[in-house]
Design brief:
Residues 113-159 are annotated as: Disordered. Residues 127-143 have a biased composition (Acidic residues). With 159 residues, the protein is mainly alpha-helical. It is built from seven helices and five strands. It is globular.
């Protein structure tokens, strides 16, 4: 397929997302409106200032690699120009690895990793709801007490 072909496969214009959902999968009306709103928010994430907040290293790397170009839509830059004077592309192994790693992660036991449960101090005299569902919703990283960057408030992931 070559670098240029791979580059074209891994980019999709913004308008094509809703068209494909409608024509290929018969998804339209309310869901399409919600999806279009999400597409707009993700396309403008640089305006919102939301930090990347992936729940795993794989997800964070993919969020960092995914770009939005107003002409090309969502782009995973797996090919880059070798020389400004030539039009030849070479494969960016790191970006391609981010894509492959995310696909492998999605094929695992969890579709998306979950945020670790928040620890609530017991000093308020109130009930401790965190222990009611102990173990549910926390992934392996959470069990080890690792923090997740950007888990508070609005985020790239929540959009």
């Amino acid at each position: 397929m070559g670098p240029s072909g791979i580059r074209r496969v891994l980019q999709m214009p913004r308008g094509e997302i809703s068209d494909r959902l409608n024509s290929r999968y018969g998804i339209h009306s309310a869901f399409a409106i919600v999806l279009c709103a999400v597409v707009e928010q993700v396309a403008n994430v640089h305006v919102t200032g939301f930090p990347p907040d992936g729940r795993s290293d794989v997800e964070l790397a993919f969020e960092e690699a995914l770009k939005f170009d107003r002409r090309g839509g969502f782009v995973l830059p797996v090919a880059r120009k070798r020389d400004p004077e030539t039009r030849e592309f070479v494969i960016d192994e790191d970006a391609l690895d981010h894509f492959a790693d995310l696909m492998l992660s999605l094929g695992g036991p969890k579709l998306l990793h979950r945020a670790p449960k928040k620890k609530v101090s017991d000093s308020g005299g109130g009930s401790d709801d965190d222990n009611d569902d102990e173990g549910e919703g926390a992934d392996d990283a959470a069990a080890e007490g690792e923090t997740v960057p950007g888990q508070e408030g609005p985020s790239f992931r929540s959009e």
